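Below: protein 1.
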Amino acid sequence: MSLGTHHGGHEGGVQANVGEIVTVADRVRGAIETVIEGKPEVLRVALTVLLAEGHLLIEDVPGVGKTMLGKALGRAVDCSVQRIQFTPDLLPSDITGVNVYHQDRHEFEFNPGPVFANIVLGDEINRASPKTQAALLECMEERQVSTDGQSRTLERPFMVVATQNPSDMEGTYALPEAQRDRFMARVSVGYPAPQAELDMIDAHSAHSPLDALAPVTNAAHVRDLADQVRSVHVAPGMRRYIVDLVNSTRTSPELRLGASPRATLHLVRAARAYAALDGRHYVVPDDIQALAVPVLAHRLLPSPEAGMERLSAEQIVAKLVSRLPVPGPQ
């Protein structure tokens, strides 16, 4: 474990009420755990991304609860939720919306697509063509949709929770690098522990626990908490630590594509939220180390040599973290 430093100040804006953030996050986590059991770290990353106003990519084999996790997060927050089932014949306008001409009024009217929601669940995103996947690029980065020369702002909070099957499975397209880079973090649900699977049989036998999940907070409250998270202090040493870590991915011979400057900003924002979930007003190296793999690994491409050694991007990031000197108290 690394050494953190207490900071009494904050970085302007609204002072983070970390007690309130922890309380609300615990309520949301408790609600989701009535549906998804035995995955505390996955839920923590999901809540981190929500409070950091990012987007979450959930990758795993079919049937392990990827879509259920996204639905449960949407149900736990009383806000607008839309689900998009990505298929090979899905069109970009099916996501963003389309202008429809009304003959009787002699004018066009915009029919918004499902992306106009607070939480957008993109199911099996890599089953659609790259052209359709690209419809989300502007939405995810700029929080707006441009159609026929007009831009429409998306309401905060706006979070895309996308699920995808491993790229070596049938009927999948690889997500373009630009698309992957817009996801703040990627998590894998994994198979449940035997006891959790036994409990699941009882819980799901009569009805879906998702039907009984009641909202524990609302969009306005989440928006307020996200504003507070922005004031969590990131000391100069922590900023340098993040920059050095990201830079190490660009110079590593085991990687042919390193992390982007966007990844640096995402790691800072996620670290702030992760610290707040721990009840702290300041970021410590442990926050950055815990988030390095989920925030960075999906953006990286291992070199051919690393591929021959069967090194995954996650393993390479873990090695880079272990080699990087940890900043001391400041």
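Below: protein 2.
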Amino acid sequence: MDFGSYIRWLRQQRHQLNGRYTIQETAQRVGIGTTYLSRIERNDVLPPSEDVIRRLAADLGEDADVLLALAGKLAKDLREAIIQRPILFAELIRNWGDLSDQELAERVYKLRGK
């Protein structure tokens, strides 16, 4: 699913449970125009900035990293970490990219020292 369609789906799911998730009210809470949110949901514009995506994530109860990935973006803190150590992070991602979710979760758990 693409970014805009997913945003629309999330908002409509929330709207079924809580009437305050109209496109107008959601846009107002996020601090963007209703027309702009409508265009985002229809994929008529490129995905918004990281800041807007984070506000959408908070309002819609979704993980910001998930929305950023759908938008083809990388969080600023992750981007900065990769830029500081590009070879190490590239190797880490390439070597761990083929692991199953279970295997990856186990390795992350070990890295956290738990």
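The domain at 3-70 is CATH 1.10.260.40 (434 Repressor (Amino-terminal Domain)).
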